[in-house]
Design goal:
CATH architecture of the largest domain: 3-Layer(aba) Sandwich
Number of domains: 2
Number of helices: 11
Structural class: alpha/beta
Number of strands: 16
Low-confidence stretches: none
CATH class of the largest domain: Alpha Beta
CATH topology of the largest domain: Rossmann fold
Strand order of the largest sheet: 3-4-2-1-7-8-9-10
Oligomer: single chain
Radius of gyration: 21 Å
CATH superfamily of the largest domain: Glycogen Phosphorylase B
Largest sheet: 8 strands, mixed
Order of helices and strands: EHEEEEEHEHEHEEEHEHEHEHEEHHH
Length: 378
């Protein structure tokens, strides 16, 4: 029975698209009677390494000594990874990136074990010159060596930096269509515009400031509210921005949400917006989750978003950073109930047909099996 180690810099209950992808892969491996799953991730709570059981899946959280930007680090990780891969009797490593560090180290220390690197983003440039110089150096000089060392690469979309590399396959994220189910028709829902995602200062590329300016341009529409779902150190900054724009009384910060609470938010939204600014948004899982709930979506025409949203069919696309275009798209869906209902229904159909998790994780399991068989033959 081969053991697959899913190695990710963050893992639930930490919220995010990469985390969700890694967790679904781990669960799919654990549910396969011919495979065994383990998880190795960082301990976001401190420098001690912890070991726990998560619904039958062993989860090792390696102690984190420091954090640079959004990247957890520890000088002990190379030694700890080798020890845990050996101790857990791992046969195949599935590392997840782009948060630098843990995933790349797992590929480097995998030894003779086949390593699959799942890469979740395009360029991570953030529009900050000093940081971007370091990111470009990493993507130009370090990342290609990591790609070359991996036995196989998984690109989550055509925007992923792994896409098109030798040995790469595209396996997009998915959605649990049995859990994210349609709510009432979008035209009958409260006039609530929803954003779900990070609210960190290191994630300015998510475009939340642009969304706030766009929402301010909707002040003439009665009863319209903005709900920002997520947590991070930028919440006070965004709250202050909303105050300056005169919309603070119509903007709600809910904090991080998951599980049934997140599903309820998606099912009750009139519109879900993803206003990302760069190719770092290589897919946009929240768009697919909203589509599965019959919720019309508006996204920026950047990164992987155009590969998810068919403009005029399942949602609308706007130029990144254009708050007036974003406001106009939201206004159109809030005022045209029949259009919102059609897009919501088309989005649900698209989510079921193309983005169910069972298809994505099934392809991952097939890849792991083929690599394990190849290793055993040699």
């Amino acid at each position: 029975m081969p053991t697959v180690a899913v190695v990710a810099p963050y893992y639930p209950p930490h919220v995010g698209g990469c985390e969700s992808y890694a967790a679904h892969v781990a669960r799919a491996v654990a549910e396969d009677p011919a495979m065994r799953a383990v998880v190795i991730t960082s301990n976001t709570a401190g420098w001690r390494t912890t070991f726990a059981d998560d619904a039958g899946i062993p989860v090792v959280r390696l102690g984190t000594w420091a954090r640079w930007s959004n990247t957890p680090v520890s000088p002990l990780w190379p030694l700890q990874l080798r020890r845990w891969l050996r101790r857990l009797d791992v046969d195949v490593v599935n590392a997840h990136a782009p948060v630098p560090g843990l995933g790349e180290l797992a590929v480097a220390v995998a030894g003779r074990r086949p390593a699959v690197l799942t890469y979740h983003a395009g360029s991570m440039s953030k529009g900050r010159p000093h940081v971007d110089r370091l990111i470009r150096w990493y993507e130009r000089h370090v990342l290609p060596r990591v790609f070359a060392r991996a036995r196989a690469l998984v690109a989550v979309s055509p925007v992923s930096l792994a896409y098109g590399r030798p040995g790469a396959v595209e396996i997009a994220p998915g959605v649990d269509v049995e859990r994210f189910t349609p709510g009432p028709p979008a035209s009958t829902r409260p006039r609530t515009v929803v954003y779900v995602g990070r609210l960190d200062r290191t994630s300015r590329w998510k475009g939340v400031d642009v969304l706030l300016r766009a929402f301010a341009a909707l002040a003439d529409l009665p009863g319209v509210r903005l709900r920002l779902v997520g947590g991070g150190d930028a919440v006070p900054d965004h709250a202050a921005h909303a105050e300056r724009l005169g919309i603070a009384d119509r903007v709600e910060f809910t904090g991080e949400m998951s599980g049934d609470g997140l599903v309820a938010v998606m099912r009750s939204a009139a519109v879900l917006v993803l206003p990302s600014l760069t190719d770092a948004e290589s897919f946009g899982m929240v768009l697919v989750e909203a589509m599965a709930c019959g919720t019309p979506v508006v996204g920026s025409d950047v990164g992987g978003i155009p590969h998810v949203v068919t403009p005029g069919v399942t949602g609308l696309l706007v130029p990144p950073g254009d708050h007036l275009a974003l406001a106009a798209a939201c206004r159109r869906l809030l005022r045209d109930g029949s259009l919102a209902d059609r897009m919501g229904a088309a989005g649900r159909e698209r989510a079921v047909e193309r983005h169910a998790w069972s298809a994505s994780t099934g392809r991952c399991l097939q890849l792991f099996r083929s690599l394990d068989r190849e290793t055993n033959r040699t």
